[in-house]
Amino acid sequence: MGSASDADTMRKCAETLDELDIGYEMKICSAHRTPQRAHDFATTAAGRGLKVIIAAAGMSAHLAGVMAALTHLPVLGVPMEGKLAGGLDALLATCNMPKGIPVGTMSMGSHGAVNAALFAAAILATSDKDIQGRLIAFREKQAAAVPEEPPSA
Ligand code: RP5
What we know:
Rossmann fold
């Protein structure tokens, strides 16, 4: 994530990864304020065994794009909600990548944080049957928790 101020939102991502029993590391590395740290994180990620990078940033959100430029690993971007048009700036900065360097952009804020974990799980599930099983179980549990009838007024 780009800032400590993103942590509350990205804890939703961590909680979802915990539920799926998927290991992760959480770091603050800003494309703007700590560019060397962001560079080092991305360039060492594959060698350290990471499989997917989830990059959360707000405002002029370059973190996911910078990560994607520096590693062949799949990068999922989570735009943080913000004061300018609710965070539309971060959404556009994260998703509108030039061809050649893709970022899989999630929805904004906590919805995107949870979906990033689920999308990462889906990527990992293509080559890991245990994760696939846990992801399917998660989806079944989620479906079972949705009532068929709306609450009475
Ligand atoms: C971005 O700027 C961060 O990802 C954060 O969402 C936003 C604001 O950062 P702070 O000023 O709260 O540290 O780099």
